[in-house]
Amino acid sequence: MSRTLPVVAIVGRPNVGKSTLFNRLVGKKLALVDDRPGVTRDRREGDAHLLGVDFKVIDTAGFEDEDPQSLPGRMRAQTEAAVREADVALFLIDARAGLVPLDEEIGRWLRAEDTPVVLAVNKAEGRAGEQGAIEAMALGFGEPILLSAEHGEGVADLFTALLPYIDRPDDEPEVDVDEEEEARSGPLKLAIVGRPNAGKSTLVNRILGEDRMITGPEAGITRDSIAIDMDWQGRPVRLIDTAGMRKRANVTDKLEKLSVADARRAVDFAEVVVLLLDATRGLEAQDLKIADAVLQEGRALIIALNKWDVAENASSLFNGVRAALEEGLAQVKGLPVLTVSAVTGKGIDTLIKVAFETREAWSRRVPTGELNRWFEAAMERNPPPAPGGKRIKPRYLTQVKTRPPSFVLFGTRVDLLPESYRRYLVNGIRRDLGFGAVPVRLTVRAPKNPFDR
């Protein structure tokens, strides 16, 4: 059993270095960082480990005084929620800019909350931060911690200040778990991908049952890929919301390029990927490119038609999408195509259920005996060709790994097998051995002929 980790929420106005400090504490470049303000929108979580203490860090959007219905206003609501759930708020200000009215407003808000506050002055390398530190004393949170998130200065002092709020005794012994069994029984890593405005964040919020992600009519609200842990009918799920992926030719902004790259890394991390389509727009060429990229990475793929509650000509739309997938993704037949509504919640339980079943197939290992009985029968039904009169002699087939299922075919001249015969074997493995529509990889290995010179 895992303990609930203490939580540190980093708050402050835009562009004071919250995401840089977040990356420093978790030891990875998880959050997108750019010179312009307002890069972070949704709150992002990461696990940190310092001097034997484990805790969770939350990177929040820059705190702005805007209309609650505007995008900055909705971002502020996410920050407020993060602070209320945290064990301690890390209030960050910019040493070089000094104390500004928005810092004072944030300070008044934090004093009205019950969450303890640790004040830190960022960008204080050298003597640049002395004046900012003096001004920060007026906020009433005691002497601030001077640090440089970019260069790592002052992190030890910061940790010392946080320690009283995050150091908990470890009452539960660690339990050794078999690595493969842990992978199968651990959280389902489920990523939601698709074009902008397909409804990915709205779907994530509906699955979670709370407004965890910022949503709205504006395209491209989500920038970071956000992973959220949850339970579905007693089973753990790690849900990953991603930025919308447009055609590469249309992506010219540096920040959008970073967001799309982050979404692709989320696909690499996932086990099962849901490609969310907008049912009011149908299947487009960009959707097929995203699907192909997911399959090339060896991830299990599910197609979900969102906004089904407002779709017109539903039956012909569904059949048209399925036919286009069969033609455009010839390497995988029979992909699950489901209908959902992120607004009403229709089809979500089915979506999660199919995701678990798909992961089970993606993780399946076939016993060697069963595999080679199938292989012999497949060879009898359709013997391999003899290109140029040279007979190909496949000997046996073995599964070398799972997740994705990968097989190696051994035999004489098997490297001469045409692509059509390899597809015959792969399709048969999927159809007959319980792999369904998950990506299956097949490589061939022929012994070297000592006389071929």
Share of helical residues: 25-40%
Straight-line distance between termini: 61 Å
What is the CATH class of the largest domain? Alpha Beta
List the total number of helices: 13
Subunit structure: Associates with the 50S ribosomal subunit.
Function: GTPase that plays an essential role in the late steps of ribosome biogenesis.
GO molecular function: GTP binding
GO biological process, one term: ribosome biogenesis
Q: How is this fold's topology laid out?
A:
Elements: E1 7-11, H1 18-26, E2 44-50, E3 53-59, H2 71-85, E4 88-94, H3 101-112, E5 117-122, H4 130-136, E6 145-146, H5 155-166, H6 179-185, E7 188-193, H7 200-208, E8 226-232, E9 235-241, H8 254-269, E10 272-278, H9 285-296, E11 300-306, H10 314-328, E12 337-339, H11 348-362, H12 368-381, E13 393-401, E14 406-412, H13 419-432, E15 441-445
Parallel strand pairs: 1-3, 1-4, 4-5, 5-6, 7-9, 7-10, 10-11, 11-12, 14-15
Antiparallel strand pairs: 2-3, 8-9, 13-14
